[in-house]
What we know:
Blueprint: H1 3-20, E1 25-35, E2 49-60, E3 63-71, E4 77-83, E5 86-96, E6 104-113, E7 116-124, E8 130-136, E9 139-147, E10 153-159, E11 162-170, E12 176-182, E13 185-194, E14 199-206, E15 209-217, H2 249-270
Antiparallel strand pairs: 1-2, 2-3, 3-4, 4-5, 5-6, 6-7, 7-8, 8-9, 9-10, 10-11, 11-12, 12-13, 13-14, 14-15
Amino acid sequence: MESGxxxxxxxxxxxxxxxxxxxxxxxxxxxxxxxxxxxxxGKIKGEKWxxxxxxxxxxxxxxxxxYGTMTYQNGDKYEGEWRSNQRNGHGTLWKLANxxxxxxxxxxxxxxxxxxxxxxxxxxYENDDRxxxxxxxxxxxxxxxxxxxxxxxxxxxxxxxxxxxYGTYTKPSGECFEGYWLRDMKHGQGSFYYGNxxxxxxxxxxxxxxxxxxxxxVEDDEVSFPNRPKYFTDADEPAPLPxxxxxxxxxxxxxxxxxxxxDQEDASLSH
Length: 271
């Protein structure tokens, strides 16, 4: 018998036996083996084959289905629900913190769909940032809160992994922006509060730049101003000055805001 037909018969025998070994129900551990790549000198160091992945959990007709734990080749680990061989349902992804496999760091806990973060969940970044909210296809999408390692907090809407829609960005210094965002930038109507000076700007923003609005000082009896110049509390009254006002300030502001919005619509159409 020729060697080609021997290989063919051997392959068919392997396939027949594999079909007989259908995995159903819980299993203690299933390993995937992988051939080790040769070094620069063309030689393979160590064993020719090694364990690349390990799955412990439930199966249905040879597919991961139900609850199970998957340990990947790089040491990372997923614990949670599976469907049709993919992460579907609720689960947690862990990152290996040391090579000995003794310590893991949580990366994501939440909902999965077709192997991607989708639904509601929490992501823990390498730089200690944290996001709690909704996901779609592995990206922040919907309502969510981002807590940055420097103390900044954004809470609002996200689209395609960027701040977009209505949201509030607060800094530890007390500064706060509340308004609309577009592609991670302040864009549209919004208010910026200067915490240290107790002042506020309300108006239109274009790509993080305030374009037109009202800038006022917010008076608060409970707020002290230790750095305020002395003339603010001087008992002597300054000489009265004649008032200087616009004839119709509200209309001037309205016209300016409308002009900015028209320019933005024209710019969007040109792109």
